């Protein structure tokens, strides 16, 4: 009886997550961004589109992405503001906040640039022909990162 109640509940909750959970490892895995036939993201909000962008960046830069929980005390946090136009092109990017770790700033900007083109934003998300977002790169001591929009919870001290 409980199985009949629990399985649908688990399915509903799983549909709410950003990425699928690998039940064998307990890790959230990278997924491909859902798009329409013309490459437009199916995200209905700017936050959902931001998560799509984070998935794309993580997918393209998979060798630089930390797949487990980030360490308790991060080496660096770099916040990058950027704009994506109606065609998914990166229009502008800049460091908004950093601890002045130039190597990690360059890694964040390079990861962003290498991930273009992005999925096209849905037309209702555009303001003046573009979507403006800010994303935080969370760096571990080894130089690998996760993006805040889709990051795992940090480890305890």
UniProtKB/TrEMBL annotation:
It is a single-pass membrane protein. PROSITE patterns: PROKAR_LIPOPROTEIN (PS51257). Residues 1-19 form the signal peptide. It is found in: Membrane. Transmembrane segments: none annotated. GO terms for cellular component: membrane. It comes from the Bacteria. Keywords: Membrane, Signal, Transmembrane, Transmembrane helix. This is TonB family protein. It comes from Noviherbaspirillum pedocola.
């Amino acid at each position: 009886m409980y199985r009949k109640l629990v399985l649908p509940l688990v399915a509903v909750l799983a549909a709410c997550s950003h990425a699928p959970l690998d039940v064998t490892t307990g890790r959230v895995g990278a997924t491909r961004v859902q798009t329409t036939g013309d490459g437009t993201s199916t995200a209905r909000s700017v936050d959902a589109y931001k998560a799509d962008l984070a998935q794309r960046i993580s997918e393209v830069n998979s060798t630089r992405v930390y797949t487990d929980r980030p360490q308790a005390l991060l080496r660096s946090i770099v916040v990058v503001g950027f704009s994506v136009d109606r065609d998914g092109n990166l229009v502008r990017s800049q460091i908004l906040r950093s601890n002045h770790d130039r190597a990690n700033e360059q890694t964040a900007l390079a990861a962003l640039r290498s991930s273009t083109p992005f999925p096209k934003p849905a037309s209702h998300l555009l303001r003046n022909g573009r979507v403006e977002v800010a994303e935080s790169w969370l760096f571990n001591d080894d130089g690998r990162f996760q993006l805040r929009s889709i990051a795992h919870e940090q480890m305890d001290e």
